[in-house]
Amino acid sequence: VIEIGQPEHSVVTTCAYCGVGCAFKAEMRGDELVRMVPYKDGKANRGHSCVKGRFAWGYATHKERILSPMIRDSIDQPWREVGWEEAIGFTADRLKNIQARYGKDSIGGITSSRCTNEETFLVQKLIRAGFGTNNVDTCARVCHSPTGYGLKTTFGTSAGTQDFDSVEDTDVVIVIGANPTDGHPVFASRLKKRLRQGAKLIVIDPRRIDLVKSPHIKAEVHLPLRPGTNVAIVTALAHVIVTEGLADEEFVRERCDWAEFQEWAAFVAEPRNSPEVVGPMAGVEPDAIRQAARLFATGGNGAVYYGLGVTEHSQGTTTVMAIANLAMATGNIGRPGVGVNPLRGQNNVQGACDMGSFPHEFSGYRHVSDDATRQMFEELWGVPLSGEPGLRIPNMLDAAVDGTFKGLYVQGEDILQSDPNTHHVAAGLAAMECVIVQDLFLNETANYAHVFLPGCTFLEKDGTFTNAERRIQRVRRVMAPLNGYADWEVTLLLARAMGFKMDYAHPSQIMDEISRVTPSFKGVSYQRLEEMGSIQWPCNDKAPLGTPVMHIDGFVRGKGKFVITEYIPTEERTGARFPLLLTTGRILSQYNVGAQTRRTANTVFHGEDRLEIHPHDAENRGIRDGDWVKLQSRAGETSLRAEITDRVAPGVVYTTFHHPDTQANVITTDYSDWATNCPEYKVTAVQVAPSNGP
Ligand code: SF4
Fold this sequence. Notes:
Layout: E1 9-14, E2 23-29, E3 32-38, H1 51-55, E4 70-71, E5 80-81, H2 84-102, E6 107-111, H3 117-131, E7 136-138, H4 145-154, E8 172-176, H5 180-183, H6 185-196, E9 200-204, E10 213-214, E11 217-218, E12 221-223, H7 230-243, H8 249-255, H9 258-268, H10 275-282, H11 286-298, E13 302-306, H12 308-311, H13 316-329, E14 339-342, H14 349-354, E15 361-362, E16 366-367, H15 371-381, H16 393-402, E17 407-411, H17 415-418, H18 422-430, E18 434-439, E19 451-454, E20 463-466, E21 471-475, H19 487-497, H20 507-517, H21 526-532, E22 534-536, E23 580-585, E24 610-613, H22 615-620, E25 628-633, E26 637-644, E27 652-656, H23 664-667, E28 684-690
Parallel strand pairs: 6-7, 6-17, 8-9, 8-13, 9-12, 13-14, 17-18, 18-19, 23-27, 24-26
Antiparallel strand pairs: 1-2, 2-3, 4-5, 4-19, 10-11, 15-16, 20-21, 21-22, 23-28, 24-27, 25-26, 25-28
Helix pairs in contact: 2-19, 3-19, 3-20, 4-13, 7-10, 7-11, 7-13, 10-11, 16-18
Bound molecules: iron/sulfur cluster.
Iron/sulfur cluster binds near residues 17, 20, 49, 185 and 186.
């Protein structure tokens, strides 16, 4: 029995784990947080939560948290604890010195999808205006950057089209490349409720995820495609819809570019895109593809929900656009119950993208080369800004290895663990003269850092997060920052030391600036958030109460754009040496690389990554359930225990990536999305063999 005592007061705030954005009452006794209670008026969760948000907050006071800044001259020296003034002065001197020798574009930074909108906005402002370069990027580079590119191209805006409530009006759901039960559990509960009421489900996933068959739920169709064949399968669905006359031509004529549609329809109708050709190549029964296509086109309101199983491919952007094509061709855009809905992974990855974290875009997704937008920022910030897009994360690392990129500020991100090709990331970091890591714990990236600035948890700051349905919600300070400063205050210190003055007394003032310069946030303020509880952008003169469902009267870009989505097989091929395909995912109780969840006292969050392997593949290799196995790819190798299961098809293996010992990204390849450089984490040719352990 755990005695937690009676709370004395509570503060409503937002979960800092996944993109569902559940609201919680943080119940306090004095300055001590005693429990997190799901908030019944939370618009995204309506009083529900998952195990992470409710119980996994103990990391905030974990003994391994770093609370003092640390510096060192080189990475082979021990850390030296210093005060904030010395740490900030050391950092600014190094960065200015680098720029004096190598130019403004020799440094850059990475914003955090874990931090607030206000903090992210400030970091990109510091980099663009204070550093004088557009070398800013964010972790969306390795997850949902294809969503941004694909949906902006087809619909005109880089975000999902619906609110979560919309699922209550849905008749047919496609879940593709997502496992909501584990990744977005509170949304999964709402989806399951709708399925129990009779909505039909199509699952497109190499693995038999929980939704395919669980108590009271059974998918009508499961397409267990070979990893890497998303584009072919979605195009084959379109083939059936077009060739069987199931497209909603009235919608398309009215809302989309008709000539582009006709060109697209002719393309998808080609025999090479038929289920009979695509199915055998992708490992799926052609009849199942036809059944799924007919169901989606004729079953009523159709909605697509997708995750990283769509984006983290060499054709991630192409798949997003193929899904958008499918939704437009069937008239499933612009009303409740339909739409294209990315299930965003991190709590504020949507917000990080909205706030101008990409090297080519200011907040609100306006290109840096747009003269009017750039001049507006120049006048407000009082400095000239570059109209040239900056470097993306992989390009920064390449340039570091080449000797032209020398300094990196990384806020709330462990790129050594989360980015592809660990050896290359390490080489890039090691080649730099100043790496600054701002985080809660000494992460793997910090091994290559010269400055460590302690970060804050969501419990120690005010701000806002934006969830997967574009919902902006308040984050409220529950306790004082244990390190003395909230993250946004540290950015102010660094900006001033760099000679660029930024003055804000409270994050609400940062939001006021965001709303002044970002058309889709024009009507957002802390006062409005207090009154409404939350706001879904766009919120402006046209939509003063926000926008739960987008593209109702017309697409943001005008006419919806159909894009030809030619399937191009990944360069990553299986063969005699690496005959199996590895794909990856998450479990409910862990979060990403586990920095927070592994540091909670609750033992339910511990455990290990396991390799799921089909019984045939295990038997062929003499592997028994629970055995240690060596997992080897062209890039590297690691060891983990095997779990024999028919959740995966023969020829496919699967693992989670939550534990640093597994080092899943030592295995993954260098291939990435053609449009955005999002890494191809979901397809790696591997071999598996019995081993004696690590
Ligand atoms: Fe937090 Fe996501 Fe769980 Fe909600 S579903 S409590 S936002 S981790």
